[in-house]
């Protein structure tokens, strides 16, 4: 029997929207702008209906987006914010005035985008579909300003559909060299591709890499997410005050536990330079990361509790402990984040290394947003 609706749509509700997205395989990167361009044209080019701040770079992108969203909300500006990856629910990636898109709206958007994809010769990727849903929703909600975080690889291409009025290029470090190029110049060129001649650029890049930024209207430098957000609003001509605030999973304090999504050496080093030294580190990471390099950065005196993040791409706790042993550090493998948190007890502890691990710890601790699906 045919379980499709009469109009050939498979998406009838939120669970079926999630099923469809899962089939698109988040890990698959499809370079090129052809699919997203066609998809947006078919949807009426909603990205042209709003002013956009696009945030790219290596680290600090998410924090910069959250600061901008928060400042614009408080200034009474209708703001759409798109960040990635999510911690608990894919709906975290589409926010209006700080609130997540509802399940019904999400399913409706997914259904419409799915219809459009059906008519295309080559099916858009997970990132392209989510980008299209996001921009379509923002246009319908008539947002004044869209704050858009650029992910990597395919996401970079997808966000390139937007003509940014302001572009923030945060930091530059080697990451994802398998597809972004193995030297900083190549990475700088890729990351700077979001810049248009009419774009005002704000950057934390060193001067030597600024020459890889394409033609732009003007360029201002800043040294932190707080500065980048402040400068971005100035360049946008919006009067709003940026206040220090902590997004979930970014230097988030819960009693004696600090949670941070630092998942590369650059981010980890930055984090450790800004916090009190933890006595315990609950650590887990994915296989595309330089594990020995990350472990070597952790405080030598800290007890390392290795956990396996909830992803097929994760290093097992046992594999982590093998390298901990080689580095002559003190550590043990834990069967779950719950066990590790119990073992940490009341000691100052840090949970880091992977978004997946931080998400599991937030669930365990019952932190806000962790109940979302």
Structure description:
Strands 4-3-2-5-1-6-7-8 form an 8-stranded mixed β-sheet, with helices on one face. Strands 9-10-14-11-12-13 form a 6-stranded mixed β-sheet. It has 15 helices and 14 strands. Helix 1 packs across helix 4 and helix 3 crosses helix 10. The relative contact order is 0.13. Helix content is about 40%, strand content about 15%. With about 375 residues, the protein is α/β, with parallel strands linked by helices.
Going across the major beta sheet, what is the strand order? 4-3-2-5-1-6-7-8
Residue windows where pLDDT falls under 50 for at least 5 positions? 1-7
Shape: globular
Overall radius of gyration: 21 Å
Q: What sequence of helices (H) and strands (E) makes up the elements?
A: HHEHEEEHHEHEHHEHEHEEHEHEHEHEH
Sheet/helix structural class:
alpha/beta
The biggest beta sheet reads: 8 strands, mixed
């Amino acid at each position: 029997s045919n379980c499709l609706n009469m109009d050939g749509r498979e998406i009838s509700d939120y669970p079926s929207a999630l099923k469809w997205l899962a089939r698109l395989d988040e890990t698959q990167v499809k370079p090129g702008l052809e699919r997203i361009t066609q998809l947006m044209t078919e949807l009426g080019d909603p990205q042209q209906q709003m002013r956009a701040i696009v945030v790219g770079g290596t680290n600090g992108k998410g924090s910069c987006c959250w600061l901008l969203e928060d400042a614009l909300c408080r200034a009474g500006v209708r703001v759409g914010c798109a960040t990635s990856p999510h911690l608990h629910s894919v709906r975290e990636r589409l926010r209006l005035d700080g609130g997540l898109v509802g399940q019904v709206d999400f399913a409706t958007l997914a259904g419409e985008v799915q219809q459009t994809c059906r008519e295309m010769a080559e099916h858009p990727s997970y990132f392209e579909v989510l980008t299209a849903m996001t921009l379509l929703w923002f246009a319908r909600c008539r947002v004044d300003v869209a704050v858009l975080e650029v992910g990597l690889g395919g996401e970079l291409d997808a966000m390139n559909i937007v003509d940014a009025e302001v572009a923030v290029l945060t930091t530059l470090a080697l990451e994802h060299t398998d597809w972004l190029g193995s030297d900083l110049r190549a990475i700088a060129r890729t990351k700077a591709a979001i810049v248009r001649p009419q774009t005002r650029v704000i950057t934390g890049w060193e001067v030597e890499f600024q020459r890889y930024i394409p033609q732009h209207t003007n360029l201002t430098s800043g040294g932190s997410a707080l500065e980048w957000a402040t400068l971005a609003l100035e360049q946008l001509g919006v009067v709003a005050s940026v206040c220090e605030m902590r997004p979930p999973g970014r230097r988030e304090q819960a009693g004696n536990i600090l949670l941070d999504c630092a998942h590369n050496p650059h981010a980890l080093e930055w984090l450790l330079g800004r916090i009190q030294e933890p006595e315990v580190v609950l650590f887990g990471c994915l296989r595309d990361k330089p594990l020995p390099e990350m472990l070597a950065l952790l405080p030598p005196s800290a007890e390392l509790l290795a956990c396996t993040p909830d992803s097929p791409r994760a290093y097992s706790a046992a594999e982590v402990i093998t390298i901990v042993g080689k580095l002559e550090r003190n550590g043990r493998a834990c069967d779950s984040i719950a066990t590790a948190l119990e073992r940490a007890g009341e000691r100052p502890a840090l949970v880091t290394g992977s978004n997946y691990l931080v998400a599991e710890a937030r669930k365990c601790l019952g932190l806000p947003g962790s109940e979302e699906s």
